């Protein structure tokens, strides 16, 4: 009986330390490591088809951060419309994501979270292999969809890792990715910026400010008005914002491996990498009540904006801010890791993430464990 009470007390304290950041005596916390790599898919073939970027089916086998609130699927109207983007050629690639930890001192209550590809209308993900190497200290590998619905995380938990011992967990998936073609020119007059009442509830987060995207700033509201003045259609308004950012901001990848400057700072400096240029585009769009969001692929990002047609059917249209001109469609074939730019997690109560890549938290005695993350095409 006494042992059960002690065990329960220790378990409660271990969970408490993960949530509130309190370390047991003699232990320190470790955590927060981020990295992004770039890799393009191959094995391309021609395949054109009409599709609706809102017609997203969530994986039935994934877990959920909250049992009380299921994550909203990326699903507007279920009926596929005729005025949205289309699917183009495809590329299929096996993709491995994982972590390797080696303890120096004794480690306990380790939680590792790594973003992994998930299903989207233009992307199909098939689980090929889950593997783990160590003792039974690793529980099952969980795949957890964020409550915002914009990313999926592989969660690996270890109760304990003894000094000198190594633990490894990895997930291998097959990703089939379609390029996205622009809508037919005849559809453009039928597309409009939706009034707020017509925007699905799950998408309204893409009208709000987020980390490094100060869309509530009056400067962006003035810019939207100036840029779109005299345009003939709502499609032309958004394309005018796109051209403004490309013409005004010079591409500079100095901050490629950093969080980078905010939209306001980038606008002032008139230079930035793809994520900084994307922040300016998104900030101006949101200031004009146009839903817009970041899309992350390995090593880079692009953006999507939301419109509806005359029938009230909604579509997300992509555009490439940095690089080759691509508006309303995009030739990108890399696996999609994330859509959206405003993520919070109970494991990191004091942090907001624009891009969530990989994080590890836990307790350690002595030096922190050695950590190696890998993200490779196979």
Topology:
Blueprint: H1 2-20, E1 28-31, E2 49-50, E3 63-64, E4 86-102, E5 107-116, E6 123-133, E7 142-145, E8 152-161, E9 166-181, H2 218-228, H3 234-248, E10 250-251, H4 263-269, E11 271-272, H5 274-287, E12 292-297, E13 300-308, E14 314-320, E15 326-327, E16 338-339, E17 343-345, E18 348-353, E19 358-364, E20 370-377
Parallel strand pairs: 3-7, 10-11
Antiparallel strand pairs: 1-19, 2-4, 4-9, 4-20, 5-8, 5-19, 6-9, 7-8, 12-13, 12-16, 13-14, 14-15, 17-18
The helix fraction, in percent, is 10-25%
Reported by name, the CATH topology of the largest domain is Immunoglobulin-like
The CATH architecture of the largest domain: Sandwich
Mean pLDDT, to the nearest integer, reads: 81
Structural class: alpha+beta
Helix-strand pattern: HEEEEEEEEEHHEHEHEEEEEEEEE
Q: Give the termini separation.
A: 51 Å
Strands ordered across the widest β-sheet = 1-19-5-8-7-3
Biggest β-sheet, characterized?
A: 6 strands, mixed
Strand-residue proportion? 25-35%
Task: Report the uncertain regions.
Answer: 1-27, 32-79
SS field, number of helical segments: 5
Radius of gyration: 22 Å
């Amino acid at each position: 009986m006494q042992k059960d009470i002690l065990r329960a007390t220790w378990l409660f304290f271990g969970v408490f330390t993960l949530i509130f950041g309190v370390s047991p005596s003699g232990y320190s916390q470790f955590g927060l490591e981020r990295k992004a790599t770039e890799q393009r898919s191959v094995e391309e073939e021609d395949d054109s088809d009409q599709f609706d970027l809102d017609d997203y089916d969530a994986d039935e086998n994934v877990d959920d951060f909250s049992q009380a609130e299921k994550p909203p699927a990326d699903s507007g109207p279920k009926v596929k419309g005729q005025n949205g983007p289309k699917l183009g050629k495809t590329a299929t690639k096996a993709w491995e994501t994982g972590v390797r930890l080696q303890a120096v001192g004794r480690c306990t209550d380790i939680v590792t979270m790594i973003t992994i590809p998930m299903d989207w209308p233009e992307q199909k993900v098939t689980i090929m292999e889950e593997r783990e190497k160590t003792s039974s200290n690793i529980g099952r590998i969980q795949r957890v969809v964020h409550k915002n619905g914009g990313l999926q995380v592989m969660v690996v938990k270890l109760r304990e890792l003894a000094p000198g011992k190594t633990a490894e967990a990895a997930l291998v998936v097959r990703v089939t990715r379609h390029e996205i073609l622009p809508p037919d020119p005849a559809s453009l007059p039928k597309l409009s910026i939706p009034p707020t009442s017509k925007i699905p509830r799950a998408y309204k987060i893409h009208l709000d400010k987020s980390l490094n995207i100060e869309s509530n700033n009056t400067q962006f509201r003035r810019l939207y008005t100036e840029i779109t003045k005299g345009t003939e259609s709502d499609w032309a308004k958004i394309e005018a914002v796109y051209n403004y950012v490309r013409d005004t901001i010079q591409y500079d990848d100095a901050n490629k491996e950093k969080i980078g400057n905010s939209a306001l700072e980038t606008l002032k400096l008139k230079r930035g990498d793809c994520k900084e240029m994307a922040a300016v585009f998104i900030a101006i769009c949101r200031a004009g009540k146009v839903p817009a969001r970041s899309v992350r692929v390995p090593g880079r990002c692009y953006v999507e904006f939301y419109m509806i047609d005359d029938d009230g059917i909604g579509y997300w249209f992509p555009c490439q801010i940095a690089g080759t001109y691509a508006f309303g469609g995009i030739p990108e074939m890399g696996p999609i890791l994330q859509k959206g730019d405003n993520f919070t997690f109970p494991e990191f109560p004091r942090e907001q993430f624009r891009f969530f890549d990989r994080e590890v938290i836990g307790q350690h005695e002595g030096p922190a464990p050695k950590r190696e993350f890998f993200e490779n095409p196979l």
